[in-house]
Amino acid sequence: MPEAEAIRQAQRGDAAAFERLYRLHNRRVYSLCLRMVGNTAEAEDLTQEAFLQLFRKISTFRGESAFSTWLHRLSVNVVLMRLRKKSAAETSLEEVTEPDEESGGPRRDFGAPDLRLSGSIDRLNLQRAVEQLPPGYKSIFVLHDVQGYEHNEIAQIMGCSIGNSKSQLHKARMRLRELLHEVLRQRAREERKAAGGLSGED
Amino acid sequence: MATIDCKEFLVYLEPWMEGQHHPFAEAHLGECAQCRAMVEDLNQIQVSAQAWGAEEAEPPARLWTSLRAQLVEEGLIREEEVVAETRRSWFHGWFSGRPRLALAGVYLAALIAVAFALSGPVNERINRQRWLAGMEDSTTPVRAHLAKLEQNTTLSPLLDSNPTVTASLHDGLAIVDNHIALCEKSVSEEPDNEMARDFLFDAYQQKAELLAQLSDRGGYGR
User: Fold this and answer.
1) Considering the entire predicted model, what is its pTM?
2) Is residue B123 part of a domain?
3) Average model confidence (pLDDT) for chain B?
4) Cβ–Cβ below 8 Å for A105 and B38
């Protein structure tokens, strides 16, 4: 059953059509949730909530935007609501604040040449760093760089301008770079400590 | 060409990452190792993120079950449609349920019967009477298993939290029984009709699944 037909049937309460729509989009929605919250149980919960909201509202879908865009906007909102509940201080895309933002651009952390990330970003480090991003940055980074959405799609999903999406993405990447550098610095400290301990034992 | 410093380069960095390479920024990168490192880092983050995005996670099967139950509860889909859907998507959920040892015999017998049925078209010279006899032999154990299971299920005390769903399953069972009777009649009249045979074995499996659901609800086998 093609998606358009499934949408029409689901609007009439057809169970098979609901399942068809779920099967068409569940992986993408679940992956989005999982990347945003980094926890399978919570990702399952959020995926269910997103599809529930979708099916509750499906009769109002008129096809002005792509169905997948509509679903992902809804999913992102569900995830953001959850993240906001967990982190009362960070309440919206516009209210994401970083210490250096008040003075203009991103933090001026150029990084020493001996601390390049090249080759050192493993999946776990990246995932942990993404988890530490403020919700607004995290959403745009995951949608653009991980899920592969274009800025115009993200602007629709997030309800912001394309320029805002670009700007937030850049800040998210810069913040991630800092976080990943911190991981490298921490690792270097631990290695030095271990080496010191070994030499002390000699 | 005028040169820019690291602070000024930051203004050009965001467009640079979007593919807009301003000559001032290019000149600065040519002479500044730190800013070059920063651009390389940002590129590396994008590459790693893309690799991460290439792997889509599969949600567990229980998610749809749970979601469907919620949809039924909210009245967004009707229960009889869910039962019908269960029948339609038989093979999808066939191996995903928890092990039910009580049904193992039925499944095995059904598989043997299916194997027999599929062997029909291979040799079209099979004698019609012999085929019918073989069909009868292969389906008899399935029917016997189903009848036994049905008896046990019916006799089980129903510790049921949702009698509506149980009633719906019973309705489904009655429909499947009618379907089996029709299929058996069709197969006996047209033993060469592959579709009728497929429907019959599918119906047997549907009945086994419905009985399994009923016995799960009623505590069969405990």
Assistant:
1) 0.56
2) yes
3) 71
4) no
